[in-house]
């Protein structure tokens, strides 16, 4: 059966909500995270996002997209004011609570309190992480870039701290997200669990890729002696 073809004319003819759902879905499965922030008065905020992307490892950069301005943007305001925020992975245990944070709460309301999640503060990091999350990143702001095509903003941050269960860290440094029960999202409202197919070896031109165990390639472990000592 031939696939259905939709042109730009077809997309423009759709009602706004249908077009939003369709275009959000074609990007495929995405990570779903909670951004934790607080303002200069110590009032915390929590917002669900599905646009977190890896931007580099040296330095370790993470980005996410803030939609065009259509009113107050509490998360962005707090990040610009303090320069710090957390990115928290969402699991099967609280994905519904994470979704609820997308409701238009007032600036004076804490989404942590409103949805039933717990803010956790570290003495050396000013933004709250989500206590229920098994993988949280403490981020310091590096860049703010406006996307001229639609005035969305790409927020680029550098990983300053990582909180993760030691059991999920494999000998080669890989973090097994599936063990942590982390979910994905398609579109804006469809949440999914994952099932690993296989870890594969690094691709090379002189040989075919081959399957790895969940622990990775033992031949690479010796080079990670310092990493083993840290874990």
From TrEMBL:
Keywords (A to Z) from UniProt: Flavoprotein, FMN
Cofactor entry: FMN
A matching Pfam family: Flavin_Reduct
Range of residues in the leader sequence: none
Flavin reductase like domain ranges (all copies): 32-168
A GO molecular function held by the record: oxidoreductase activity, acting on the CH-NH group of donors, NAD or NADP as acceptor
Entry's family note: Belongs to the flavoredoxin family.
Protein name: Flavin oxidoreductase
Origin species: Vibrio agarilyticus
């Amino acid at each position: 059966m031939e696939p259905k073809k939709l042109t730009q004319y077809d997309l423009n003819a759709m009602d706004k909500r249908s077009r939003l759902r369709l275009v959000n879905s074609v990007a495929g499965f995405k990570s779903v995270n909670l951004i934790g922030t607080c303002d200069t008065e110590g009032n915390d905020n929590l917002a669900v996002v599905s646009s977190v992307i890896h931007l580099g490892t040296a330095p370790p950069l993470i980005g996410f997209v803030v939609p065009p301005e259509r009113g107050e943007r509490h998360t962005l305001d707090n990040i610009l004011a303090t320069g710090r925020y957390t990115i928290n992975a969402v699991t099967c245990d609280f994905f519904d609570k994470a979704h609820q944070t997308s409701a238009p709460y007032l600036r004076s309301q804490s989404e942590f309190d409103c949805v039933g999640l717990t803010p956790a503060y570290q003495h050396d990091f000013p933004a709250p992480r989500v206590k229920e999350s098994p993988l949280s990143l403490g981020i310091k702001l590096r860049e703010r870039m406006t996307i001229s095509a639609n005035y969305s903003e790409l927020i680029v941050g550098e990983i300053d701290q990582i909180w993760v269960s030691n059991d999920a860290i494999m000998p080669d440094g890989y973090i097994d997200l599936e063990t942590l029960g982390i979910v994905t999202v398609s579109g804006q409202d469809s949440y999914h669990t994952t099932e690993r197919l296989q870890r594969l070896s690094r691709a090379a031109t002189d040989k075919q890729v081959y399957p790895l165990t969940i622990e990775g390639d033992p031949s690479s472990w010796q080079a990670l002696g310092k990493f083993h000592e840290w874990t």
